[in-house]
Write a structure and sequence with these properties.
Blueprint lengths: L1 E8 L16 H13 L6 E2 L8 E10 L8 H8 L4 E9 L11 E9 L11 E2 L7 H10 L23 E8 L5 E8 L6 H13 L5 H10 L14 E7 L10 H7 L4 E2 L5
Parallel strand pairs: 3-9, 5-6
Antiparallel strand pairs: 1-3, 1-4, 2-3, 5-8, 5-9, 7-8, 7-10
Helix pairs in contact: 3-4, 3-5
Length: about 270
């Protein structure tokens, strides 16, 4: 029997999703807990990978077991898991759907605050910008869906068979006084470091260090910038994963709270 679990986690205490020797990962903690609850060794496969200190307000993984579960696995998992990982749904699946390979779209949100705020530490990235040009940043964001090769904004493009990503949506939002920003992007796939590199370039545009034309030139020519400075990890959230047969809203209350107020689209002035 195959089960999908719908979860969320705060990534601050983990070296990413993927289980690797000698590190504490989200996958390792969940596998250990699930094996204890089910009283047998369980391996899980996630819908993707997140880097160290990256969060997920929606994430799915699957596992197989020879029997049908006859107890409340969600309750037992949440009782045993640490407070920074939560299970929202346990979903029995027909056949052998795959949590990673069957996903048709993933969405990420990146949060920035430009005024120091102790309540956002570890949940949003602090960049003390002085009057960033949000309209130019938004011009660059609006270009992203026009291109499909993102090898120029990748830490290691040569490891991929190809660097094509079909970005279906990219938007920049702010709060009313423009002291908090949210960058949203949806695509069928993402490359290593892609979102954090893009946001780094958007900040350069906002500071007047990079022009929108030069930003677009990277996409046109597929040439990697000489300098790549990814933004901090803790501002990044995997926020939505969609399957042909499963499209659940994110149920993370705090994710919605963090997004609330940072939902005013940046619109170019006429």
């Amino acid at each position: 029997m195959r089960y999908f679990l719908h979860i969320a986690y705060n990534g601050n205490n983990y070296r990413g999703w993927q289980k690797l020797p000698g590190i504490i990962s989200v996958q390792q903690v969940i596998e250990t807990t699930l094996s204890q609850v089910l009283k047998e060794a369980i391996s899980i496969i996630g819908c993707g990978r997140t880097d160290a200190q990256v969060h997920a307000s929606q994430f799915f993984f699957h596992f197989d077991i020879d029997r049908e579960l006859d107890f409340d696995l969600q309750y037992r998992m949440n009782k045993c898991l640490p407070h920074d990982i939560t299970v929202y749904d346990v979903i029995p699946m027909e056949g052998l759907p795959h949590a990673r390979f069957d996903a048709i779209q993933r969405s990420y949100d990146y949060y920035i605050h430009i005024q120091k705020d102790p309540y956002l530490v570890g949940l949003s990235s602090f960049y003390p910008l002085t009057n960033p040009d949000l309209e130019k940043m938004n011009e660059a964001v609006c270009l992203l869906a026009n291109y499909d090769d993102y090898g120029c904004f990748c830490k290691s493009p040569l490891k991929y068979e190809h660097t094509i990503c079909h970005v279906s949506k990219a938007q920049l939002f702010s709060n009313a006084d423009q002291t908090r920003l949210r960058f949203h992007i949806s695509s069928n796939r993402f490359l290593a470091g892609m979102i954090r590199i893009i946001v780094g370039k958007l900040l350069e545009i906002g500071n007047g260090e990079l022009s929108v034309a030069d930003f677009e030139q990277y996409l046109k020519t597929k040439v990697t910038p000489k300098t790549i400075v990814p933004v901090y990890a803790q501002g990044l959230y995997l926020s939505k994963v969609t399957y042909p047969y499963l499209d659940l809203p994110s149920t993370s209350i705090f994710g919605r709270m963090l997004q609330h107020g940072v939902d005013v689209p940046i619109i170019k002035a006429p």
